């Protein structure tokens, strides 16, 4: 009797639990609910902090900037601005003339005006706030001139000139003063004053009071404060679990016609579910508990595409993330360019693509994506895996093959290269093992050093490595490669970890930065690509694909190679299949 | 006895302080161990990187020396140092704020514990109960004891990840029996909110995974100790007096093996607050394990030190309690 009761109870419980299992989300009459998989939490939704790509994605649904990027066309388009800014160069300054959209308004109905842009720039330049990243991005803006005749017109006055100013000037979120600084403490403080020495500015009473208010962590979790001019508002945020955004019942762009993709906001509710384990995320997707799974691991993507193509659409556009094998050009063994060329010839690129990207990545001769046809130097041949040529180059560089390995006459020990990479990264581990195997085939010793990421950063910064695996994030808009390749960026001043460069390459990078004419820019870019191809401070392995699976319930995914890889506000329900 | 308890408490507290201090100082002194705004994948605008990093360090208060002095070469820094500030705040019960979102460390810990405690406490209680019952049942059944021993060692050798994934792939898989939710918590449940019955189906698989992997740690030593006690003379005497098998097991054998059981249980108690990282990752639960692991990855030292301090205190408290209870059972142990 007791046993029957226990079994009955267990069965009842299981059936009850099954009934509790999540099912398809409720669809509102105003739009669908989209459930997106995130591998990690955004950590902070403070619009001036944005610690990771997920925070940026959520922020772009809550706030708007002057310009935005249209993923599929890979162009900047107006967002809060009515049109793209007019660029004017005068003396040593650049003037960017903006006009805000005539219908742009905050949620309280007040129009978004030039004063809001001034306020935003003051917040971004205010010391003591967690704004360091954005502050450096807008550091080229010296002042804002508001048009006294039209409160929606303003001019950004920029130091010097660079073609990138036009796009970069419109990339920061515009903040509502009425919510962030209701006491208007920053209003009397001029922008120029905030750009002065931090220690002086921080002593001012209104600044101190503003810092104290702004830095209250609870504000950036409160839907009443965390509210911009974007189409969505915060519904709930359970850290490490779920972030839910809801469509505003009335958004200023609802009445804008004709409707452009940048001003679309179709889903009524967007849920971001934090699922760190890829196997769990795949299971949830297959159970219909998730609708969008971006950045899928290669094996899961291939398996799902083979087995579940009736339920999901699959996309894999090449991203602007390139994985490179970086070489320390100042290391004695790698100082000779022929040795570096030999190392690059020992990478079996095709095998790497098959083993790590399931054949989906895109090869390249340099840092520029082959998708950017105007800039990509397609006359350079893709480097091939060639152990015989590598052996010949090593001999030319003065290395002699001995039973113990490759050795120079004056050296006591044979050549042994240390390859560093981030521990726990499966892609890097596979690449490292395959490279070690290829090098061993010609008698070259490579030792593998999987290293904790913080320590790895320090090792790279101090140039204490021979070889290192690294992923670089690019975009199709800016070709300012000085942070990566200029000699001033070696060490703590930038991200030049290969320690490559000389006066001529620095000059080339500086000229490239300031050149606007596309013909000249293309010529300079090709020169730079040729130089990097010959000097081999790194060898690009592949551009990663943005693997994306989306439920067939949805249409208008607009996949792109740019982060996040899909246009969430454009999602709409697909017409029912007959 | 009170004096001994006080001495042990004082020792435990000073050990916790030493552990937290060591973590704090190591995290601030070792190269590459501090938080950085820009990773190797992110480049600041040209010429801005050093200034940007310096501003970030300044805001987090990392520009002052880590300790009162530096050994090599010798230099005295005095009280304006990071350790002194941390200790002063700690003395006032303040563990600081997270480097990532400026939220109080205590808020982060509280939110994570709201999820972790129901998960780990239920797993611990289930494990303890199951281990006691199984060990008592098996001690008089040599054949079953043998098979349970094999099963125990097998389970003990399985990594928690494998057990969790197996449960998930069998009991939450649309291709097998999708009986339980695959991940997370119900939408209405929040780590900051109250616990509800809706959470139960979401916790079944994680609790089962934790219980299955914890039972052998308690069962194996307990069963071995019981087997060792079974041939003792006092058991024979009890049996000769006509005591039932049940009475012998629970009234004669158990008190004699209790110190073994309590010591093993005390070893598992810190896991109650440390969370179960693997289970939390597999089932996407935002508990203590994930909080601490993410804090390590992000170099969020205040969260890390706060978490370690809490775990260390609980571990020491568990040892104290185990000592105290063992002494109650057997006063010779004090």
UniProtKB/TrEMBL annotation, chain B:
It comes from the Bacteria. Pfam families: BPD_transp_1. InterPro entries: MetI-like (IPR000515), MetI-like_sf (IPR035906). The chain crosses the membrane at residues 12-30, 115-135, 147-172, 203-226, 268-289, 301-322. It is found in: Cell membrane. GO terms for cellular component: plasma membrane. One of its GO terms (molecular function) is dipeptide transmembrane transporter activity. Residues 109-322 form the ABC transmembrane type-1 domain. Keywords: Cell membrane, Membrane, Transmembrane, Transmembrane helix, Transport. It is a multi-pass membrane protein. Belongs to the binding-protein-dependent transport system permease family. This is ABC transporter permease. It comes from Hymenobacter jeollabukensis.
